C-alpha cells in the first residue's frame, strides 16, 4: 500500500473521532496500555506473544496472502448459506470479529481481525489456535484485557498481532487504517500487499446489523457502518457492500 493511501486511511480515524465526539486521549491510553502489556518478555505468561513471535506470525500471514488466488473477507452481516456457495479452492479467508462464527471449519482461515467484542465466536476460534489481529481503541481497554487474560489460560493460546488507531508509532503495534473490524480487515489486506482485484467481500452491509456483530446499540452501529462505506468507497470496493 502506498504511503499516501495509508495516510488517508489513518486520516479517516480522526474524522470518525470527531463525528462521534470521541477523545483521542482514550485511543492513546488503550494503545499505550496494550503496548506496555505486550512489551514484557512473557506477555501474560505466554511465550509466543512476545515481539519476535508476533513478527513471525505477521510474516506467515503475509506469505499466505501472497500465495492465495483470492481473499475472502467475511463481515458481520454474513449468512452461513452465503459461505456454503463459495469455492474456497486456493482462497484465503479473513474474518471480521464474531463473523468467524459463521464458518463451518477453519481450513481456509488466515486470521481474525477483532476488537474483541465477538464473544463466544472468537473464544472458540482462539481455542482452536487461530491467529488474531487484536485492536486497541478507547472504549475497549477493559475488554481486551479481559479477553487476552482468558486466552492466556488456554492450553495453546492463539497467535497474535497488535493494531491501534493513533497517529504515534508504537513498538510492536501497527495502524493499518480503517475503523470497523470489517473495513480494518480490508485495510490490513491491502497493507499486506493483496491486490484489490483479489478481494471478495461477503457479509458487508450498511443497513443491517449482522447476527455476528457484538454491538448492543443498533442505531449507533448503523452510523458506524456508514463510515465503513466511506472507507471502502475510498478503496473502490463499495460495489461489494449490500444495502
Structure overview:
The protein is built from eight helices and six strands, in the order αααβαββαβαβαβα. With 243 residues, the chain is an alpha/beta fold. It is globular, with a radius of gyration of 16 Å. The protein has one domain. It has helices at 3-20, 24-37, 51-67, 80-84, 120-127, 141-152, 181-191, 218-234, and strands at 70-74, 91-96, 109-114, 132-135, 160-163, 199-202. 42% of the residues lie in helices and 12% in strands. Helix 4 links the parallel strand 1 and strand 2. It has a six-stranded parallel β-sheet with strand order 5-4-3-2-1-6, with helices on both faces. The longest helix is centred in the first third of the chain and has 18 residues, at 3-20.
Quick summary:
This protein is of the alpha/beta class and 243 residues long. It has helices at residues 3-20, 24-37, 51-67, 80-84, 120-127, 141-152, 181-191, 218-234; strands at 70-74, 91-96, 109-114, 132-135, 160-163, 199-202.
What coarse outline follows from CA principal-axis ratios?
globular
What integer is the average pLDDT? 94
The CA-CA distance between the termini, in Å, is: 28 Å
Strand content: 5-15%
Helix content: 40-55%
User: What strand order characterises the main sheet?
Assistant: 5-4-3-2-1-6
Task: Annotate the secondary structure layout.
Layout (H helix, E strand, L loop, with lengths): L2 H18 L3 H14 L13 H17 L2 E5 L5 H5 L6 E6 L12 E6 L5 H8 L4 E4 L5 H12 L7 E4 L17 H11 L7 E4 L15 H17 L9
Parallel strand pairs: 1-2, 1-6, 2-3, 3-4, 4-5
Amino acid at each position: 500500500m502506498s504511503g499516501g493511501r495509508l495516510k488517508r486511511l489513518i486520516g479517516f480515524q480522526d474524522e470518525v473521532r470527531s463525528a462521534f465526539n470521541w477523545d483521542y486521549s482514550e485511543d492513546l491510553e488503550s494503545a499505550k496500555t496494550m503496548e506496555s502489556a505486550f512489551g514484557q518478555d512473557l506477555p501474560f505468561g505466554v511465550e509466543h506473544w512476545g515481539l519476535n513471535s508476533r513478527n513471525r506470525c505477521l510474516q506467515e500471514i503475509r506469505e499466505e496472502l501472497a500465495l492465495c488466488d483470492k481473499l475472502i473477507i467475511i463481515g458481520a452481516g454474513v449468512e452461513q448459506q452465503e459461505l456454503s456457495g463459495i469455492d474456497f479452492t486456493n482462497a484465503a479467508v479473513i474474518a471480521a470479529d464474531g463473523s468467524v462464527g459463521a464458518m463451518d471449519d477453519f481450513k481456509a482461515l488466515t486470521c481474525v481481525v477483532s476488537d474483541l467484542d465477538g464473544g463466544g465466536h472468537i473464544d472458540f476460534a482462539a481455542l482452536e489456535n487461530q491467529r488474531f489481529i487484536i485492536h486497541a481503541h478507547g472504549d475497549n481497554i477493559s475488554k481486551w484485557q479481559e479477553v487476552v487474560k482468558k486466552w492466556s489460560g488456554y492450553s495453546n493460546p492463539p497467535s497474535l498481532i497488535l493494531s491501534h488507531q493513533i497517529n504515534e508509532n508504537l513498538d510492536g503495534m501497527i495502524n493499518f487504517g480503517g475503523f470497523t473490524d470489517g473495513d480494518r480487515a480490508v485495510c490490513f489486506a491491502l497493507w499486506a500487499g493483496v491486490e484489490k482485484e483479489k478481494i471478495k467481500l461477503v457479509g458487508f452491509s450498511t443497513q443491517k446489523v449482522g447476527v455476528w456483530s457484538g454491538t448492543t446499540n443498533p442505531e449507533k452501529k448503523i452510523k458506524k457502518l456508514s463510515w465503513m462505506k466511506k472507507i471502502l468507497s475510498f478503496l473502490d470496493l463499495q460495489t461489494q457492500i449490500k444495502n
